[in-house]
Amino acid sequence: MRSRARTVLTTAAAFVLLVAAWELAKLVLPAAGVTVGGVRLLPRTDDAAMPHVWTVLAKLGAPEVAGAADPRSIGVAVASGALFTLGLALGGLVLGGIGGVLLALLMQRFALAERAVLPYVIASQTVPLIAIAPLVAGWGGKIAIAGWAWQPWASVMVIASYLAFFPISVGMLRGLSSPPKADVELFHSMASGWWTTLLRLRLPASVPHLVPAVRLAAAAAVVGAIVAEISTGTRGGIGRLIIEYAQSATGDPSQMYAAILGAAVLGLVAAGAVGLLDLGLRRYRGTVS
Amino acid sequence: MTAVSLSGVDKSFGEVRALDGIELTLGDGEFVSLIGPSGCGKSTLLRVVADLEQPTAGTVEVAGKSAHRARLDQEYGIAFQQSGLLEWRTVAENVELPLQVHGMARAERRARAAELLELVGLADFAGSRPSQLSGGMQQRVAIARALAPSPRLLLMDEPFGALDEMTRERMQAELLRIAGESGAAVLFVTHSIPEAVVLSDRVVVMSPRPGRITEIVDGRRPRPGEATDLAPDDVEDVRESGAFFSAITAVREALRKGDAV
Ligand SMILES: Nc1ncnc2c1ncn2[C@@H]1O[C@H](COP(=O)(O)OP(=O)(O)OP(=O)(O)O)[C@@H](O)[C@H]1O
Ligand SMILES: [Mg+2]
Fold it and tell me: What's the 3-state SS for A150-204?
């Protein structure tokens, strides 16, 4: 419990440090940046490139479209965009998690499956996301499942799940095969079948491997969802917002930074969700910690 | 009835002949130790009885059934040098494990685990985690777990090998009491001659390459209520009796003879 409080404190401290470093850079570095012989070594630090932290925070309260009849503040727009993306990322995490766990079980059960499938699992991750995104969107557009027409956000979720799936399948496989031979033999000597051994030995023993894998997968799902939103042109999420703000606000980057701040908070919330999972399973963390 | 009967058992791992023509019978409630130099096939013999290893030749019967059938019926319990307790389970839940695997109802399991923890003197630790217990206590939990399904036979591979001498002697006394109360036969692998002598009805001496039984020496297991001058019923008295030392000498000579061939 105490270590958990410490994690929260260090996270907060790191955030404060980051803000301080940002402001310090603005204070001491030349506004035009540092160039040596035409090569830029340090970026420009003037307000147009690096706005003050408080300018960004203040921007959250400003209306999104100046002079609109029913103005929505940028903060609300960013929050709803982040929430939308968080939903897709978590959906992708769940989908990828289910797929990864099932595949790991298959590989654990049948050594042949492991040898046949594992190389493809690894190879799948070398295909760049940018190449996958239009493919998924293209295929998805042709599918209608039981009268439900494919929506662009579904492509985003599928792409997020594709990224989340990898760490979970690999981590789960490691976890499932982590019990020492003596433990496996003990279960065998008790005439325990595959299913009972899975439930009473392999699954509990895989928790210490699974939790860090889910943490990686959650981060991958968030990044995947944001990039997928951008490359499929899906509206409503934080990814699209970053692009829109970046294009609309030339000369005033604080709006874009507000959206980036939203994306960062989104990542923290996803990590926090995994922390809750960790808390719920702490009984199984056992000897590894 | 016999608890174990092995006849003509061979076991080879490729070129290595781990067991060669093993003939051995354990009566109900009998305590038999296996002793011999490293690599002579003691663990292999135990594993063949446990159906964890298939013999290359010969027949193995446990409680009058094939070793396979006996394993499925949980006719034996097993304990290794490492207690092998599951850290995510409490002490009581570890003891319940074999019963849970066999689908016994929860209330019944609970009651049986409480009874066994009483037997091994750990009733106060039912809710503890294994890591909170000393090595000797963990080993007692493992013994309780092995005894949970009331097996006819207990298989133990150097269960006290990792314990200090004092704890070890206390555990030997405990084991004798537990084995006596449960009525289970015990097949016990050890490297310690005094341990084999003080625990056993018979000490089986083995020699390596190929793994054979070279001699069987009578042990000095105390029999409660049957005390004579030659065979006291208290372990401490046994350890100081002349018969104990002569049995140790007999085992040591058998080991030396086995080494020479
Ligand atoms: N799975 C296996 N594969 C190949 N060889 C094995 C295997 N198990 C045991 N052996 C060999 O069989 C022989 C007997 O091994 P075993 O483990 O039964 O000896 P042991 O008497 O228990 O020795 P120790 O006292 O060191 O525990 C050894 O030569 C060992 O190398
Ligand atoms: Mg051995």
Answer: CCHHHHHHHHHHHHHHHHHHHHHHHHHCCCCHHHHHHHHHCCCCHHHHHHHHHHH
